Amino acid sequence: xxxxxxxxxxxxxxxxxxxxxxxxxxxxxxxxxxxxxxxxxxxxxxxxxxxxxxxxxxxxxxxxxxxxxxxxxxxxxxxxxxxxxxxxxxxxxxxxxxxxxxxxxxxxxxxxxxxxxxxxxxxxxxxxxxxxxxxxxxxxxxxxxxxxxxxxxxxxxxxxxxxxxxxxxxxxxxxxxxxxxxxxxxxxxxxxxxxxxxxxxxxxxxxxxxxxxxxxxxxxxxxxxxxxxxxxxxxxxxxxxxxxxxxxxxxxxxxxxxxxxxxxxxxxxxxxxxxxxxxxxxxxxxxxxxxxxxxxxxxxxxxxxxxxxxxxxxxxxxxxxxxxxxxxxxxxxxxxxxxxxxxxxxxxxxxxxxxxxxxxxxxxxxxxxxxxxxxxxxxxxxxxxxxxxxxxxxxxxxxxxxxxxxxxxxxxxxxxxxxxxxxxxxxxxxxxxxxxxxxxxxxxxxxxxxxxxxxxxxxxxxxxxxxxxxxxxxxxxxxxxxxxxxxxxxxxxxxxxxxxxxxxxxxxxxxxxxxxxxxxxxxxxxxxxxxxxxxxxx
Length: 538
Ligand code: DQQ
Hints:
The protein is built from 3 helices and 37 strands. Strands 26, 28, 29, 30, 31, 32 and 36 form a 7-stranded mixed sheet that branches. Strands 9, 10, 11, 12, 13 and 14 form a 6-stranded antiparallel sheet that branches. This is Beta-fructofuranosidase, insoluble isoenzyme 3-like.
């Protein structure tokens, strides 16, 4: 194999080996963060799925404990698939997950901690009254999975939704319960949308209309909006809307400015799937976990012995204007920052680039602010691009000369730039405003063959004519590039596998392939240390 062990990530969540996918049941309980995840204990491909389990006190250093749930009973013998945790009154955590039963039907099960005084909640018990919810009454038994965290209504009933589809209509089927044991299907789904196919891993939660503080999942009323997210099996991307939840009707209606489906908003415009949020009562914030799969070959995955990472957990909150979410890596990640460099006020002339020296950047955190001095040369924007930023970036990648931009970073670059991943902005002029595109272009990231190297992109909702400045933060970790545009308004995660740009041969550059000069007002970069990453029991 041509796989280089130096491409294994250093501070992104991973077990020591084997396959991982969806984050499951994240929660904070009695001073400990729990992360469960879909895991194959036998290999680097999907299969034999159990709920692996790790614990942490800071979301950064992780200790692996024994898997919490594995197939043992008729109601989960063919699979223990994704689900969520709910903290019941009296501080009692429970897990709801999808089991694949003896008839290969998807059913929903419950599990309880065996011993609440074990700080790590190692053992979980599945009561005999499982399955809790079955696919009856016309529900498609092979498209019925991934229960959400439950929320408690003012009428004294719990609610949760389960992802499903009816034909091509994606559905979030709603159930209610008074005792968390007997669940009754509601007449109407919480939300549905035509043409979107199966809704995997739905997530539904309140956000405050004002400020960054998170809300616990049952919050409802004045000053609260709701967010609904699905993972679309069809596109393998996730979409969310911001909207209004009417608890009396038990229906969620997305705001007009927030389209459903595959032209809608995304947490991440790159490699990011099956995400889930939870309310962190310690930090009073809502935290998002998401899975980034590999984009090398299955042969590579087998030879390296692992596949899949979780991205850095992000705090999420509603943007001031209420039209989209903002995300930012949890501040704890900054405890890994080591050696630092800083550069101020440097003009990046049209067509030029320069290297950022003084720190190693295979494992780094880089924050940069660009100042767009003039917008005169901005390229005209074709309105047909407005629903397809990814396609636009496919035509106008990092090498394609522009007016204002492309300007940004070449990360995970070799010394002579033979290999590099471009993370950049490009500013267009439309009739009444400017349009800013953020792009991740890995087409020149590696000399290796058999890699999937899609360009990823999203628009950034910023008034560049007024602000002139735009920021970019990039978390670089050997084979992952996780970028946050304009303080977390647009995020893009990408997996890349350089052959030259590995270990101490990794370089970082700032570039400008636009006709207009750009000022880099400031760049701060830090080497990132290694946390404890599941190096204990599993
Ligand atoms: N992964 C799980 C399912 C879920 C899918 C199975 C999403 O429960 O729908 O591993 O990646």
